[in-house]
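FOLDING PROBLEM:
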Amino acid sequence: MRGSKVLSIVLSLALALTLLPFGAFHASAANASVSLVGSQKVYTDEKTTSESITVYFKLDPANVAKSSAFLSLVDDNGKKFKFTAAKDPNYTANPPVSLNVYESSGGERTTWVLQVEPDTGKKNEFQLVITPEAGQDGVGTLYLRIDPASRNDEFSYTELKVAQFSSRDPQITVIDKDRSISDEGGTVRFQLSEEVPYVFDSNKTITLTLPDGFAWGSADVAAIVSGEIAKTDIDIKTNNKDLNIKVTPKYTASNPQRIIFEVEAGVNVVKSSTARKGEIRVAVSNAEPRTIIIGKYGDYEVTVTSEPGEIWAGRKVETGEIAGKIVLEEYLAGSLVEGRTIKLTLPVGAEWPENPNDAFDYDKGSNKAKLRWAGYERLDGKNRVAKFAVDRKSTSSGKTVIEVKQVFTEAKFPEGPLTVEVTGSGVPSTKVTLANVKHIVSVASENKTGAVIGAQDQPLGNIVIKETVAGALRGGKSIIINAGDFITQFTAVDPVVEVRSGDIELGNARLEDASYWNLDKYYELGTSNRNIVIEVRRASNEPSEIVIKGVRATIDRTAPEGEIPVKVAGSAVVDSDEPSKVLRDNGSDDFDYKYIEVSPVRVVTPADKSKDYRAKFTIDQTSYSVNGETKTMDVAPYIKDNRTFVPVKYVAEALGVKDTDIIWNPYAKSVTIFKGDRVIQMKIGSKTLLVNGSAIEMDTAPEIKNARTMLPIAWVAKALNVEYKWVDDERSVEFYNTAQ
């Protein structure tokens, strides 16, 4: 058992030794040393040259009668370089050393073998000449790698620095390019450095040339960051627009250090009419880059810009999101004067939160100037003006940002930019877009009807609510359709609610008194059936569209002619925890998100039934007569397929219909006419005529001529509920609307 253990240990040790690199086998008494003769080479443009490198070897004393090593040139990336190696013919060894150098990389010339047969027991010295092939790209340092051929050789594994790869010129960097230069002048500080030693050249002068209108002031070395040079080794002279820097470099051959130093120089504005405002670009020679920006020249001024986000009308900005940013950028340091006030004013329909900490983040560490909160100014009873004061002016030019975390907008706020007006002392009055407002739901009407003032139980068009995104209408909340300002009450017993698309789940529509929700503004509390309420039982997972049909109402006698809106609100639609807040407009501190308006009905003035209308139209003539008065139109009646086509618009107007009661929809290519208690709808290319919602099938369809809707006389008369007569010998038609 004991013998087995010993054998196991020996085998394990042997295996471990076979895994060690060649360099680990150098003799414990190896006395070979190697050093560079002269200074390291510097390869500008990061390419080798064919300049020879001399390397000194010493074995003191030599212990082995014969030693070998592999020679190669490598850079910091481990790349191997092509070269030749030979005994230095100009070096006389004492005692003489027998050595041989030959290539061993199959003609690639990347690896050479050095064989030495020294005089043992004595000091042996010799030199090799290493000559790289020119034009090889390299990075960082070039090393001569010496790798012993076996563990018995005199040589140790060595990487000797022999050259440096460098760009052609030193590097120049502006330390603070945000420096401000006014008409009083200023200072600039920049750093000059080399990537590797030996780049600075005493035969080259680095020149920095200012643009027209500027001149250099006094300049001096501000600091020596690295290297063996002193300030006296750096000669700096100014000559109007030129700043000249000449360096007398000093390097320690055995361990050269990079030279890095800083220069501070004054910049004067000698001719303001010539000096161009903006970035001051300086031309550079014998250093990289060839152009630098040392600062800005200009007046003390502030520009106002924004970085807008997106918000939903009628909804709060969600936690973790922002509405947008207001950016105050100073051209020169100190443009925002200490103690001055900056105001942010919102338009009507928008308001800042009561707590400024909920609304703004203005104390960012990156801000150039320090701001403090200065309170609100109320406009129309609302927090529409936010005020900030400059608590500490900036020390360098740049940006001061006010981040807006929260802003309130009414549900009916128009889609598009939410504009903030920025004003203040030293700040130009500027309007910028804080956020882009979008509607989370859209509301429209279909089959809009015409109604008569004061009449009861009149039909309204359909109300369509469409979600922009899934879940826009909140589950467990209610949609409220309020009668608005000119509908006395809804009279439909059971309005129908239909989910046209999507997967939202709704309850039935019901009528409720205004006093139930306390929404009424224009009517006494207790007025019945002023609201249609629809419960959202479950929010949608895909954007949904709903339509409310069969709504009837009584129009108030004070209603004006034209569109009569209702108000779509409720906590399912807007950000309101309590329905009682939805339509409130009493100047309270709580923001009123209000509602979205839609007009499903239009009040029309009934045609004057006490007046006769007689209109005459003639084929191929653009003149026509109304009660004997001649008028002109832009299209003439014509005959097609034995049918007489007349322009619907001109016939309707001739029979007492107002121009505003004739509506053309270019998208649907349809025309709607409100004539008394009749609502007439026709569509280009369709043979279906709608009169008060009832369909009538025609034997021909309306068509377009000269941008006018044309229809045969019989169907025009039927639609307008008038009589007509064809006069064959005149090729004319007469329409009659007889007084009643």
